[in-house]
Amino acid sequence: MNIPEILTGVVKPVTDLVDNLHTSEKEKAEIKRSIFEMKNNLMSQLVKSKGEIIKAEAESEHFLTSTWRPITALVFVVIIANNYIIAPYMEVFMGTKIILKIPPQMWDLLKIMIGGYVVGRSAEKGVRVWKK
Asked: How far apart (Å, rounded) are the C-alpha atoms in residues 132 and 127?
């Protein structure tokens, strides 16, 4: 379970409680708006802190610290290329294929890595535009 799912899991019961309050619909709506605003602020801070971590790692003087994400991504690329490009051709031409199992956690990590890269690049481009 990731942090957005956790936050949503916490917010939903709280907003359900608000629905059961003996107060006006306007007050209920204001309370819910405040709750969702807090959730959105937490998500924004989380994205910002993730971006700062990725930036700090990329700027690190230590080889392993600055390259572990690209190395991991390349391993994923090799596994995916094997399973979906190399193995099918091996089966056609050689009658055998080797498929590497991809656990769900690997896909989750790949999504996080790609998401971090996209958020980081978007923020970087946004800052450049904003500075101009």
From this structure: 9
The sign one gets for the Cα dihedral 116, 10, 19, 40 is negative
- Closest C-alpha among 48, 41, 43, 42 to residue 122: 48
| 109 Cβ contact partners less than 8 Å away, ≥ 6 residues apart | 72
CA 31 – CA 50 distance, rounded (Å)? 29
Which residue from 38, 58, 47 is spatially nearest to 122, judged by alpha carbons? 47
Confidence of residue 83 (pLDDT cuts 50, 70, 90): very high
How far apart CA 10 and CA 3 sit, in angstroms, is 10
Residue 14 CA neighbour count, 13 Å, CB half: 15
The token pair at 29 is: 């709506």
Q: What mean pLDDT value characterizes the chain?
A: 80
Q: How do residues 18-59 score in pLDDT, each as one tens digit?
A: 777 777 888 888 888 888 888 888 887 877 777 787 778 778
Q: Is this prediction's pTM over 0.70?
A: no
